[in-house]
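Today's session is about reading a structure prediction critically. Students often jump straight to the picture, but the first step is always the sequence itself: look for stretches that repeat, for charged clusters, for runs of hydrophobic residues. Only then move on to the predicted structure, which in these notes is written as discrete structure tokens rather than atom positions. Here is the chain we will use throughout the hour.
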Amino acid sequence: MKRLFRAGWSLRRTLLAVLLALTMTVWGFSAIVVYYDADQESQELFDQSLAETAQLLLALANHEIEERMAMGAAHLSTPIKNAHGEYLLFQIWDNTGRLLYKNQGAPDQAFVASNVSGFGVTVVAGKSWRTYAAWNADGRLQIQVGEPDSHRNQISARFAWKLLLFVLIVIPLMSLAIWWIINRAFRSLQVSTDEVSRHTPTDLHEVSLAGVPSEVQPLLQAINRLIGRMRSTLEHEQRFTADAAHELRTPLAAIKTNLQVIQRARNDAERHEFIGALGVSVDRATRLVGQLMALSRLDPQYDNQHVPVRLDLAELLAAQMPDWSAQAGRLQLQLTAQLQPAWCQIHQDSFSILLRNLLDNALRYTPAGGSVMLTCRVADGAVCLSVADSGPGIPVDMRERVFDRFVRLAGAGMPGSGLGLSIVKRIAESHGARLVLTEGLHGAGLTVEVWFPISGEDNAFA
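Below is the predicted structure for this chain, in token form.
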């Protein structure tokens, strides 16, 4: 089997070879079965004819004996001439063992013993003969008839040659028919192959399924789905590149401006001032690049190899609270947490990115003296992770748009890339979770809820 399906094997040649082999095998086997069945039938017919001939000759001989006995001559040993002596020999014996009749060519010795009746085989002059012996009704006369096996074999041989000739004529015709049918069937595959080969990185049209065999349609449908993903990926890359170039232009321009100002600084005080501004621009560019890299890894075409694990969100969040509390303290914010046990299946690395973006947005956009609350709980058959703040919030009509890339609210006072919530959305989708934006703390600000499917022992995400 491995040799048959080696690398680079041809389906067309394999089908042709297998079908031809099966055709020849079936025809050959059928010819053999037909020959042996016909030979057996012919042997039975020959035997029946031999027996009927013997009974007819026995009846004639019995009648002739009675007539001769009436005339006083009960014996005739003169051979009877028979034009068919080459194919049929017969002898007539009486019950005393005397040979009364025989045709020309028949031997003087009996074909079989006098006590034998029915069919048998004997050898006459070195040749095999089929024999038949029978007695008349009163047991006075016995006839023995012989027919050479060569006569029967000649007839069987002629039938075999005709059958072989028929097979030799039919098999090439069947081979041509099979070859034509296979080529006809593969013609549509060649059309599809040519169509796929015409694809270019900028021309990713779907392959036509018209006239394609149903067995091949799943393959072409899979190719079309792959082409669709490639087209989506290409569009994403083009959009991502254009957006990234547009967004990077601002921090890079600021860096260049700060460098020019530093070069023209009149004193150390101005130079230190613009060096600080340069550091801010570099930090912004660095943050933007990091967000872009994170977003590119989380897009649908990114093949995430991380295996989800079943974790308690409360335990995971509690372990990270000291670092976030320290950052909130530096920003003069109050960070509180209400954590209830909540088990679910998560990709731990991407979940950390989601949590960092939610808390970072909440801490950065909440004014000093404000509050941020982190909660996790189980409700309505799902696990809810919630980050609420008392910042400026997001207008209701903008809450759907903020998940798009590079979308920032007009008048946002803090620098940013507009990618944080887009990254959160991608990670939530990869976990099968849904996002809900509501009012924040004290009737102001924003609450971002991420609802994860509740986890059982056998529950997992792709």
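Discussion point for the tutorial: The first helix runs from residue 11 to 71.
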